[in-house]
């Protein structure tokens, strides 16, 4: 798609993404040059902001719009003993540097211990900063999460962070548009996470390159905001520039009344504008993908990229049967790293740990659906469970509902908010060789700790896995119940039966 096509000739039907782009062009690029795009919201965290602040300082430039910035601490923060000094020197320096920078430049910040601290992609929406129709950037690839509100949101590099700090704009090349049409009713036990894992397995980890994905269709319309965020969050794992969902009543209800959301007449005007944003009838996408949601099942990854996944009811694939030589080699290498043998039923894979958290799945809905499954049940012997809310606020809300108690009675660890075991930048890590069912978004080699092995799953699969000890879904719990195995907390005999079945 050329720059000119974004010029929006009167009456041409446009997609959601094209409308947002058109409304944010400050200077139109000539002869294939990038357009200069206005940025409405700039989120920062400790990892990718230090050099950008240094750059500003060296150039003696102020922040252009400090009021459009907000900082939170998430990657390097511990999730235990948060009032103590951070032990790891690198993490400590990162956090201290952010604190110095936000103080010097006057940026609103939510440090560890603050009620609004948490993963940057949980904090923005929770404060009502993330809204339909705005452009959002952050030096973080999962900024795509915010697209769930009908915002154009994408991750940027550190030099771009500095550019936005100094000018509140970014030079950007136009993108192509891809519609991901998801129709039909999800079966119980199947979630937004399973849809997006299926999408990535379908189009591949490079399939979205150069595109902004728009998730559309009846299934998406019926998803709550938390599910839409889960899907947009992982758009980047398909290589996409961004992911989006058109704003609707569900979006407006979510944003309404939040701290930074417009109020009164401003709110009415905003909603009036937001209603104009959905893709026009007849607008043409560069590519369309169709997914039948009613056929989806709980999904799980077996490899070391998010596209290497299968239905949980299937077996570890045989690389020899993969035609494409590079995909075959990647699968061979992945199975070796994951210590898996082709043909093994995925459900027979035993895990050492379950991680419930990350910007993909650590919001209140996620925690609720997880807790509902483990409530009154007994954790599988030898499995370590960590439950990490996405923000301090989510933690408090979950505690008000007793979710912390449910997790602890089950035998899990209830932690403070942060990126935690999503990536090995803080004390929450897997030991070499440990296998984890994780609700996060990346299963790269060493992602959760050197030598750690990650299977990406939904919160429901994480819960069922924590109960059964092997990769499992709520469907397996139903089968167990039909066979008289309830996994109840006090039914020790039942738990033993399962342990034996697993070993057998
Ligand atoms: C540390 C940060 C730059 C990184 C990202 O950009 O995504 C991290 O959040 C991740 O998920 O790998
Ligand atoms: S939770 Fe994980 S994916 Fe999300 S921002 Fe933190 S490290 Fe990145």
UniProtKB/TrEMBL annotation:
Q: In which pathway does it act?
A: Amino-acid biosynthesis; L-leucine biosynthesis; L-leucine from 3-methyl-2-oxobutanoate: step 2/4
Q: Which InterPro entries match?
A: 3-IsopropMal_deHydase_lsu, Acnase/IPM_dHydase_lsu_aba_1/3, Acoase/IPM_deHydtase_lsu_aba, Aconitase_4Fe-4S_BS, Aconitase_4Fe-4S_dom, IPM_dehydratase_rel_enz, IPMI_cat
Keywords of this protein's UniProt record, alphabetized?
4Fe-4S, Amino-acid biosynthesis, Branched-chain amino acid biosynthesis, Iron, Iron-sulfur, Leucine biosynthesis, Lyase, Metal-binding
Query: Could you say which EC number(s) this protein's record lists?
Result: 4.2.1.33
Name the GO terms of the biological process aspect: L-leucine biosynthetic process
Q: Which residues bind [4Fe-4S] cluster?
A: 359, 419, 422
Organism's domain of life?
A: Bacteria
Name a GO molecular-function annotation. 4 iron, 4 sulfur cluster binding
Q: Which family does it belong to?
A: Belongs to the aconitase/IPM isomerase family. LeuC type 1 subfamily.
What is the protein named?
3-isopropylmalate dehydratase large subunit
Query: Which organism was this protein described from?
Result: Leucobacter chromiisoli
The gene designation is leuC
């Amino acid at each position: 798609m050329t720059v000119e096509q974004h010029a929006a000739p009167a009456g041409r039907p446009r997609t959601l993404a094209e409308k947002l782009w058109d409304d944010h062009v400050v200077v139109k690029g000539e002869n294939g040059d990038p357009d200069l795009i206005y940025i409405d919201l700039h989120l920062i965290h400790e990892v990718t902001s230090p050099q950008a602040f240094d750059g500003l300082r060296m150039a003696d430039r102020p922040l252009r719009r400090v009021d459009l910035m907000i900082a939170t601490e998430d990657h390097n923060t511990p999730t235990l003993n948060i009032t103590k000094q951070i032990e790891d020197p690198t993490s400590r320096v990162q956090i201290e540097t952010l604190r110095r920078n936000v103080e010097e430049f006057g940026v609103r910040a939510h440090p560890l211990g603050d009620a609004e601290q948490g993963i940057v992609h949980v904090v923005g929406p929770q404060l009502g900063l993330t809204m339909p129709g705005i452009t959002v950037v952050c030096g973080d690839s999962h900024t795509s999460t915010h697209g769930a509100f009908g915002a154009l949101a994408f991750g940027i590099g550190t030099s771009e962070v500095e550019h936005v700090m100094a000018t509140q704009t970014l030079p950007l090349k136009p993108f192509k548009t891809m519609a991901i049409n998801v129709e039909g009713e999800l079966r119980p036990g199947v979630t937004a996470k399973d849809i997006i894992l299926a999408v990535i397995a379908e189009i591949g980890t490079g399939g979205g390159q150069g595109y902004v994905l728009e998730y559309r269709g009846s299934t998406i319309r019926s998803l709550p905001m938390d599910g839409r965020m889960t899907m947009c969050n992982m758009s980047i794992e398909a290589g996409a520039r961004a992911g989006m969902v058109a704003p609707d009543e569900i979006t407006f209800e979510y944003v309404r009344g939040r701290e930074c959301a417009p109020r009164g007449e401003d709110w009415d005007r905003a909603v009036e504008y937001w209603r104009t944003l959905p893709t026009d009838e007849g607008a043409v996408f560069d590519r369309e993908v169709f997914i039948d949601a009613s056929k989806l099942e709980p999904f799980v990854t077996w490899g070391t990229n998010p596209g290497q996944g299968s239905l949980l009811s299937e077996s570890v694939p045989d690389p020899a049967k993969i035609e494409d030589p590079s995909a075959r080699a990647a699968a061979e290498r992945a199975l070796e790293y994951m210590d898996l043998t082709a043909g093994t039923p995925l459900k027979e894979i035993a895990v050492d740990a379950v991680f419930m958290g990350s910007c993909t799945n650590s919001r209140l809905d996620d925690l609720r659906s997880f807790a509902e499954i483990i409530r009154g049940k007994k954790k599988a012997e030898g499995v370590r469970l960590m439950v990490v809310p996405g923000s301090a606020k989510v933690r408090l809300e979950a505690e008000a509902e007793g979710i912390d108690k449910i997790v602890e009675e089950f035998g899990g660890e209830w932690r403070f908010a942060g990126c935690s075991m999503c990536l090995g930048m803080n004390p929450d890590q897997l030991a070499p060789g440990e296998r984890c069912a994780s609700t996060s978004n990346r299963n790269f080699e060493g992602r959760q700790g050197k030598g750690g092995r990650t299977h990406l799953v939904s919160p429901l699969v994480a819960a069922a896995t924590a109960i059964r000890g092997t990769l499992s879904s709520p469907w397996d719990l139903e089968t167990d119940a039909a066979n008289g195995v309830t996994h109840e907390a006090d039914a020790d005999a039942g738990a033993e039966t399962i342990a034996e079945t697993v070993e057998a």
